[in-house]
Amino acid sequence: MDTVSPWVLVAALVFLILCSAFFAMAETALMAANKFRLRSLAKRGHRGAITTLWLLDRTDKLLSLILIANTLVNAMATVLATAIAILLFGYEESVIAIAIALLVFVLIVFAEIAPKFIGATYPETISLVASTLLRPMMAVSKPLIWFVNLFVRLFLKILRVKPADGAAQHRVSPEELRAIVLESGNFIPQKHKSILLNLFDLETVSIEDIMTPRSQIEALNLAVPVAELKAQLTTCYHNKLPVYEGEINRIIGILHVRHAVALLNEEDELSIAHFRELLTTPYFIPQDTSVFTQLQYFQENKERLGIIVDEYGEVQGLVTLDDIIEEMIGDFTTSVPGAARGDSVCWDARGECLLEGTAPLREINKRLGLAFPLDGPKTVNGLMLEQLQEIPDAPISLKIGNVVIEVIQVKDQAIKVVKLTRPPAY
């Protein structure tokens, strides 16, 4: 030892500290790296990303390599620091203790905390560089890693700890996907982000939430005179109409309006039989079907319109493929005359908003930023009747949450118009 220059030992000590810093920084960077970004780079042929993913698929071996190397480097650094202290100051116990204490401080600050901060700040950049050095080291250290892991697995077996499945760790739950989309910042345009979030909600939204209610269905009644049918067809707004006999629960088919209009141009006397010949079989949907499931059913059955029925077979409403698409990407079709437009649902300067009783609570929550409960009634009328337990016969106000709802008009045993008032400090 006396023949070795102290500066050589100091240089070797500095090198070991840098190696320790490298392993600490590489470990943090590899564990914090965005695997989705790495996979994207790997698909484009980035060799560093491919190597990094290869290492991350062998996390147990990777961590073993880093920890073994870091432990050996720190042990060698301790030996060198002790040797330097002895070489310069002799076998003074106090000097050796101070030298080891200084080395521990240097290792903590410059070889642990600072490198790990850097690794966590630039995970992808550092992991791409570090992986090119760690892979050949793993190949060289394979026997040592196997030997150490043999005892590790034995110890874990005694503790009854089962190693995590690598494939399972890579799976992402819907909640995690939602979080990724929400935290994407400017990487995903706001409109695209909204569509993705709506897709995640499809499993929790039922057909009943987006259907056209029974009272608003435009349908043909074959029990009325042909003249009335002709008048309705010439003014109807939809491409397809449900057809019933006598009352709405007796739907017998779906009429394509374009085919019926062709009949109106014929000179022959029209009869109910002519309309019956044009009917297609109606498609019925249970009211508790989820929107996502129904989208799949529409695709499998080549349907675009379904009649929603309850457990007793009574018609509750109607839903179309367009309704489901609008639930995902927003309104895009022309509004039906008399239907409430979504952009008209907003607070005025006084903090008030007039709504029809048939307005869906989900739409109100979205447009007005409210939190009306959605696990019960689906409309304002239903919510008010549930709260009041009766049909009001005079103007009445009710506070739900921090919003006051005032009944403006009641007609035909239903609340037709209400006024919402938000608190001044809303």
From TrEMBL:
InterPro entries with a match to the protein in the record: CBS_dom, CBS_dom_sf, CNNM, FAD-bd_PCMH-like_sf, FAD-bd_PCMH_sub2, Ion_transp-like_CBS, Transptr-assoc_dom
Membrane topology: Multi-pass membrane protein
GO cellular component, one term: plasma membrane
Main location: membrane
Subcellular location: Cell membrane
Membrane-spanning parts: 62-88, 95-113
UniProt keyword terms in alphabetical order: CBS domain, Cell membrane, Membrane, Repeat, Transmembrane, Transmembrane helix
Family note: Belongs to the UPF0053 family.
Protein name according to UniProt: Magnesium and cobalt efflux protein CorC
Species whose genome carries this gene: Massilia violaceinigra
Organism phylogeny: Bacteria, Pseudomonadati, Pseudomonadota, Betaproteobacteria, Burkholderiales
